Amino acid sequence: QGPLTATMLSSASPEEQKEMLGERLFPLVRSIQPTKASKITGMLLELDNSELLHMLESPESLRSMVDEAIGVLQAHQAEE
Amino acid sequence: RKSTLNPNAKEFNPRSYAQPK
């Protein structure tokens, strides 16, 4: 299983594209933040696919976005 | 800067990985 590419995504429907990206992102997100990986992956999947492909190739970008998602979730929970 | 991330996003549950409880 090689890296996911824009060409591979382009042959799939928009829903399938997010599914393919999510399947790749989830284990990486879980390795950074085990307890909220499903929620965080769902949040990241709302970003542009080009940005998601970049995150799959760049652990630093992914980590910084996961950290941001954790911050957003904590702020949201504090509001409730 | 306000984050573009949405805390109400739907959770992603992968098919190929067991879900931790």
Description:
The complex is a heterodimer of chains A (80) and B (21). With 80 residues, chain A is mainly alpha-helical. Chain A is built from five helices and no strands. Chain A has helices spanning 6-10, 14-32, 37-44, 49-57, 59-79. In chain A, helix 2 (14-32) packs across helix 3 (37-44), helix 3 (37-44) crosses helix 5 (59-79) and helix 4 crosses helix 5. Chain A is globular, with a radius of gyration of 13 Å. The A-B interface holds A 22-23, 25-27, 30, 34, 38-39, 41-47, 65, 68-69, 71-73, 75-76 and B 3-17, 19-20.
Structural key phrases:
A: 80 residues, mainly alpha, 0% strand, globular, B: little secondary structure
The number of distinct helices of chain B, counting runs of at least 4 residues, comes to 0
What percent of residues of chain B are in strands? Answer: under 5%
Identify the overall geometry of chain B: elongated
What's the total number of strands of chain B? 0
Give the helix tally of chain A: 5
In short:
The complex is a heterodimer of chains A (about 80) and B (about 20). Chain A has helices at about 5-10, 15-30, 35-45, 50-55, 60-80.
Strands, helices and their partners?
The complex is a heterodimer of chains A (80) and B (21).
Chain A: H1 6-10, H2 14-32, H3 37-44, H4 49-57, H5 59-79
Helix pairs in contact in A: 2-3, 2-4, 3-5, 4-5
Chain B: no helix or strand
